[in-house]
Design a protein that fits this description.
heterotrimer, A alpha/beta (521), B mainly alpha (307), C mainly alpha (377), A: 521 residues, alpha/beta, six-stranded mixed sheet, 17 helices, 26% strand, disordered N terminus, B: 307 residues, mainly alpha, ABC transporter involved in vitamin B12 uptake, BtuC, 13 helices, 70% helix
Chain lengths: 521, 307, 377
């Protein structure tokens, strides 16, 4: 996808180039999760190092440690051969490290020049020397080919232009090592090309760059070397010239087979949930789902795989009725429900386990019995004439909670006091107790302990055996593979291919990276 | 027309007098809110400074000493608000409400304790009218604009000065950034906490100028609850003026005009109460989006927590 | 099932057992922090009293005497507490929907003028008109409260500012009506006095001028409780307030509940105004009452936005004000000390991080870090 450099590298990237940055034995844990496990990387002067890995692999954490936003549990950082203690971004910046985050920290009402000089403003006596700020910006801008109008308000800029401002911010502070976190996630193909051109200019000037991404194709075109990280560990570091996308995909994605729950055969029946040419806009106005058609049949689990941010969230919400689709239709058991809200679809037998249990699936400060009745509180079993009956709700919840192994099965416990796994089970209890015909489960085991994962998987398979239609959206490939009967892969809001659960890592990895199914050899 | 409103010069002078405390308090509120801290305690800040000024003047016989007392009181109370909101991450609305209550109770209490009786303090040496030679001789507007108290002249100066500080100095840039995207300020190596303390402290100082004008410029004594809602009108002026010094001053002037008219216009033309309502109605209209949405600094109201 | 293999997950705040036990534990936990704040505030107050050359013990003794030391004192306390229960409920109900209702003062004035007007014109209906008049207050307060709700739901105008603005608009509007169309003859500016027959009667029993308005206030608190915890609408309001994301996911309308929560709050405050007119003053004078709306915020905060807490908080405020009068009479300590004490209590109760710094994170969670709200929402 990315054109340009063939991977041979410029003058600085040969083996003779000095090491400007080394991270040695970095380990960082968050609670039970080991985000970085004894990670070591090196960066040479004038090279572009790609940091490749799936979501949650640990790349961002590593870079945040480098930039002083996190402190490592163990390990050290060496800049130009000297050990560096980086406690906060100021230390990092003073060492010549600059970072362009995935989510920009720009101030929309201020101008480009003002954003760039903030904190290191040029002065003329007591006043802010705006003229000099503009001049400095223009100079940097021209030197590296980062076209942007210093006097423009950031709020009026396109995303690509805003990113250039972020890069200029780092350059203004004399960064010699630049970290870019998923820079192409928000860019159009043309903007991506421009960005890589700029990176080339930076490198020609002697800067060294770390590029964090999960997009294999781009990396091969622009990086000199690529370090692959998986599950917090470094898998391998390869020369870009000596590898191909297939190899990278396998390194990035492959893992030992963990728990595979026994999945018996099941009778597959008629489609119960279907969508046709669904178009859904994201919060920022872009097309998160761009013409998706699918159908889920009774007795099957359709898995949706893909890297985070390719439209899964919006697809789930549009199918569930939490978000309205712009175009296209959604059908539930033959009925067109496209214009119906989530609660009405639920009455028709659609259960939805949302991916964000913290702020969408549960009201954290409600008791479990109130959460259990979140959609049914105004139904005949719990209310009459505007009144609700907490006693009945408690009884209903007690049964459901026990059936789904929620601990503690106390209807009065505050939802927020439960562990992640138990919260998820409580949501399942709520959604599945009403005997729905269709279940949409988005990231059902994210942040959940092993025992609860197994429980949830078993329950989903149970529903499948009972002839329900289940749509499983998950970032965990193993989960998708072990539970699904069919797997579709979502990339940039489109379905790029459909495979069976026995597809290879390479196949899946390539699809997830956007390669259309036909191109896999 | 002249019969209805009295001499236009009179009306202008009245407008300036009513507007001055509003402008000062609004400018103060602007610094606080621009840094991200809501300040509905302007009322209390004005009140405590009005009182402190009188105390200082009465103890020393000197109006400037009174001014010093007032500034100290305003700063002190403002720092309480800053401590609550920035360091203790208290709810900013509640803190502002408590400041108002504290000022109300405190001034009433101390009025009795210091001066022996409630209601009104004894008369003090104030900032009387100080006509500027030549300028005050200009027909019609001369006396209205240039035969005012020293504090009014200070107000004239502060409007362009605050504009300059906010938009032409590094401090102002950082302050504005803090109220919009504190994360950006933090990663640029500037302390969000410190900027917010500065913003709130400035609000205390400017509001105290407004308060001291009430008790020692407009009048020459302190009366219980003499601010009587002016702090909220100042807040309204700030919002109506879109958190901009020129806008806020202009809005405060407009509201001051409305107040002046209620005194001078005969009752039958427009009922006084409707004129008094005017600032508030206008602000609501502005908030509802007519004439362009009034958008507060983006990060206002929330404590800043590093990840 | 899998119970044997997976270890028990410990849950800290889960409560078990009977309803009564649950209520007691929750109430107990909620009371600790405000009581603590009250204690500290009184200590600070003692220091202030000492600094002015008075004896804190004597001052506080007089305070207590003036609050609950005699039936008349209790009567004064109830008189002071009654309107604060209404304005406190106005804040608390709105807060449950995640909204800050600062408009209690204006809403109360709207109710007061409604009662002053209808009390006179409906006088012919006899004692039954009290109910009618108060219902009318509910209506006018509801409509007045709906205004900021609508402005927020439709235009995103933040309710803190709009309710503050509407306070003054409401006060001026009511004042205008009291001084022009409804003005009475005589020295005291205001409306006509309402016939004694349709006023809220005194309780008697030596409680001075205390009237049954207090019981109407208690009834209002019960209504607020039932509304929030026993009706469908209340369920929605609470869900929206605690988690707009989850409420939206469950199909609840955020806008509708925003408008209703503020409207209901307005209704409560307006009834409070009606009760003041029908029970205490018999008319709406100019000037009328002050600070009841803002004190309602303090009451609601102390009462943790729960109707029962609001009643207790209102009694505290009422008792302090009633006691302060006696304190000033008996010991020369000015009664404004009450305002100072209340302000300090408010500051302490809202400084939850202070609690964290002193006692640790769990203590802060118990103190209700949920109180934090921002304008940006």
């Amino acid at each position: 996808m990315a054109e340009g450099r063939t991977g041979e590298g410029t003058t600085g990237a040969s083996c003779a180039a000095p090491v400007v940055l080394e991270m040695r034995g970095v380990t960082k844990t968050f609670g039970p999760v080991r985000a970085n496990d004894d990670v070591s990387i090196t960066l040479r002067r004038g090279e572009i190092l790609g940091l490749l890995g799936e979501n949650g692999a640990g790349k961002s954490t590593l870079m945040k440690i480098l930039y002083g936003l996190y402190s490592p549990d163990s390990g050290s950082v060496f800049v130009d051969g000297e050990e560096a203690k980086i406690r906060d971004p100021k230390d990092a910046v003073s060492r010549g490290i600059g970072m362009v985050h995935q989510h920009f920290t720009l101030i929309p009402p201020l101008t480009v020049a003002e954003n760039i000089v903030l904190g290191a403003e040029p002065r003329k006596g007591a006043t802010l020397d705006l003229a000099k700020a503009v001049k400095d910006t223009e100079e940097l801008s021209e030197r590296y080919g980062l076209r942007v109008d210093p006097r423009a308000r950031v709020a009026d800029l396109s995303v690509g232009e805003q990113q250039r401002v972020e890069i200029l911010k780092a350059l203004f502070r004399d960064a010699r090592i630049m970290i870019l976190d998923e820079p192409t996630a928000v860019l159009t193909p043309q903007e991506t090309e421009d960005l890589f051109h700029v990176l080339g200019e930076l490198v020609a000037d002697g800067l060294s760059i770390i590029l964090i991404t999960h997009k294999l194709g781009e990396l091969i075109g622009v990086a000199d070397r690529i370090t692959i990280i998986r599950d917090g560990k470094v898998v391998e570091t390869v020369d870009a010239s000596g590898t191909n996308e297939g190899k990278l995909a396998r390194l990035m994605v492959g893992r030992d087979v963990l728990l595979r729950v026994e999945k018996g055969a099941s009778e597959v029946g008629e489609p119960r949930l279907s969508a046709e040419n669904l178009v859904v806009r994201s919060g920022t106005g872009s097309k998160a789902v761009d013409g998706v058609s699918l159908e889920v049949r009774a007795g099957e689990i359709l898995g949706v795989a893909g890297v985070d941010g390719n439209g899964q969230t919006e697809l789930a919400e549009a199918l569930a009725g939490v978000r309205l689709a712009e175009e296209g239709t959604v059908n539930l058991d033959g009925e067109d429900v496209t214009r119906l809200g989530a609660d009405t679809r639920q009455e028709r037998g659609l259960a939805y386990v949302p991916e964000d249990r913290g702020t969408k699936g549960l009201v954290q400060d409600f008791a479990l019995y109130e959460n259990n009745a979140l959609k049914t509180y105004d139904g005949p079993s719990y209310s009459r004439w505007g009144w609700i009956f907490p006693g009945a709700m408690r009884r209903g919840a007690a049964t459901a909670l026990r059936a789904y192994d929620v601990r503690p099965p106390d209807p009065d416990a505050r939802a927020g006091s439960l562990s992640g796994g138990n919260q998820q089970k409580a949501i399942l209890a709520r959604e599945l107790t009403g005997d729905p015909g269709v279940v949409i489960a988005a990231q059902p085991t994210r942040g959940v302990d092993v025992g609860a994962i197994e429980f949830i998987h078993r329950r989903l398979l149970e529903q499948r055996a009972q002839g329900k239609a289940i749509l499983l959206i998950s970032l965990e490939l193993e989960e998708v593979r072990s539970l699904s009967d069919r797997i579709i892969v979502l990339y940039a809001g489109r379905i790029v291919g459909e495979v069976g659960p026995d597809a290879t890592d390479e196949e899946l990895g390539l699809l997830m990276a956007g390669r259309e199914a036909e191109q896999t050899a | 027309m002249g019969e209805i409103f009295g001499a236009p010069g009179e009306l202008l002078a009245s407008t300036i007098r009513f507007a001055t405390p509003l402008v000062l308090a609004a400018l103060g509120g602007m610094f606080s809110e621009r840094s991200g801290v809501v300040n509905i305690g302007l009322e209390g800040l004005m009140l405590i400074s009005a009182f402190a000024g009188v105390v200082g003047a009465s103890l020393s016989g000197n109006a400037f000493v009174g001014l010093g007392f007032a500034l100290a009181a305003g700063l002190g109370f403002a720092l309480i608000h800053a401590l609550m909101c920035v360091t203790f991450e208290a709810d900013q609305i509640i803190s502002g409400t408590a400041i108002n209550l504290l000022a109300l109770g405190g001034t009433g209490f101390l009025l009795v304790v210091i001066f022996g009786a409630g209601g009104t303090s004894p008369r003090v040496e104030g900032f009387e009218e100080l006509p500027i030679p030549l300028l005050s001789d200009i027909p019609v507007v001369g006396p209205a604009l240039f035969a005012q108290s020293l504090l009014v002249y200070l107000m004239y100066l502060l409007v362009p000065v605050t504009f300059f500080v906010l938009f032409r100095t590094p401090f102002g840039l950082r302050l504005r950034a803090t109220g919009e995207v504190p994360e950006a300020v933090d990663t640029a190596g500037v302390s969000v906490t410190r900027m917010r303390y500065y913003g709130v402290a400035l609000s205390g100082l400017l509001a105290s100028l407004g308060g001291v004008y009430l008790s020692m410029g407009l009048l020459s004594a302190f009366t219980e609850n003499m601010t009587n809602g002016r702090g909220f009108i100042a807040l309204a002026a700030l919002i109506f003026g879109r958190w901009n010094p020129i806008g806020a001053a202009g809005a405060a002037l407009l509201f001051g005009f409305a107040q002046a008219v209620t005194i001078q216009a005969p009752q039958d033309l427009i009922p006084q109460e409707f004129l008094q309502m005017l600032p508030y109605v206008l602000t609501i209209i502005v908030l509802a989006g007519f004439g362009g949405r009034a958008i507060a600094p983006a990060a206002i109201g929330k404590p800043y927590r590093k990840e | 099932m899998s119970e044997d293999r997976t270890p028990q997950v410990p849950d800290e705040e889960a409560t078990r057992g009977s309803t009564l036990r649950r209520v007691l534990v929750n109430a107990g936990g909620a009371l600790v922090f405000p009581l603590f704040a009250i204690l500290i505030s009184f200590l600070i107050g003692a220091v202030i009293v000492l600094a002015t050359g008075n004896n804190p013990l004597a001052a506080y003794a007089a305070l207590l005497q003036g609050a609950v030391g005699s039936p008349t004192a209790i009567g004064t306390m109830l008189l002071g507490a009654t309107p604060l229960i209404f304005t406190g409920l106005a804040v608390a109900v709105a807060f449950r929907a995640g909204l800050f209702n600062i408009g209690g003062e204006g809403q109360l004035y709207i109710g007061a003028i409604t009662a002053a007007w209808l009390g006179v014109s409906l006088g012919f209906l006899g004692p039954f008109s009290v109910v009618l008049v108060l219902l009318a207050c509910v209506l006018t307060g509801f409509l007045w409260g709906a205004i900021p709700g609508f402005l927020k739901a439709r235009f995103g105008a933040h309710e803190v500012i709009t309710t503050i603005m509407l306070n003054y608009i409401g006060i001026y509007l009511a004042t205008y009506i009291a001084l022009k169309p409804l003005r009475t003859e005589g020295l005291v500016p205001g409306t006509d006095t309402i016939d004694i027959a349709i006023r809220i009667p005194f309780i008697g029993l030596g409680l001075g001028r205390a009237n049954y308005g207090f019981f109407i206030a208690l009834l209002a608190a019960v209504v607020a409780y039932l509304l929030l915890w026993r009706t469908r609408r209340g369920f929605q309001i609470r869900a929206v307030g605690l988690s707009p994301g989850a409420a939206n996911y469950a199909g609840m309308g955020i806008g509708v509940n925003t408008v209703l929560a503020l409207a209901i709050g307005g209704a409560f405050a307006a009834v409070g105004g009606g009760v003041e007119v029908l029970g205490v003053y018999g008319k709406m004078t100019v000037p009328f009452v002050t600070n009841l709306g803002f004190n309602g915020i303090g009451v609601a905060l102390l009462g943790r936005n729960h109707p029962a807490g609001v009643v207790l908080g209102a009694l505290l405020f009422g008792g302090l004000y009633s006691g302060a009068q006696e304190m000033q009479f008996a010991t020369d300590v000015p009664l404004q000390l009450a305002n100072v004490l209340l302000a300090v209590i408010l500051l302490l109760v809202t400084a939850t991080k202070l609690v964290e710094l002193v006692l640790g994170k769990r203590a802060r969670a118990l103190a209700g870090a949920r109180l934090e709200k921002g304008l940006g929402q």
